[in-house]
Design goal:
6% strand, 141 residues, 2 strands
Amino acid sequence: MKLSTKGRYGLRALADLAANAQDGPVSLSETSGRQKISLNYLEQIFGKLSRAGIVTGVKGAGGGYKLARDMDQITAGEVLRALEGEISVVDAGEPSDPVQAAVKSLLWDEIDRRVNGYLDELTLGDLVRKYQKNLERKEIR
């Protein structure tokens, strides 16, 4: 399993948006500048996030994007699936013999279950709080 830049940048940009949305919608150009991500690429990412019901676009002066729900109700798994599709460590396919069936059920399926379980527990709010704590400490971890 390797996440593309779409998933990695999407989570970064969404955490940035949530951390900076106290005064209303956040423009993608502001997020682009802070996160050093191409505005064009962010527009593609936020289009997918909007279609998935994670963000809402606001048109007009002072427009931009805002979260569609509270940041503690949006999980990292939901965001990554919206941007990347299903998350799986390996495409094991259907087993054709007992050894493949054993490896698939005891290893690949279990890794997928644990990874997806963790991603579904971790919220955008958790990421934002860690981001803000790092800003306060001026740390990068």
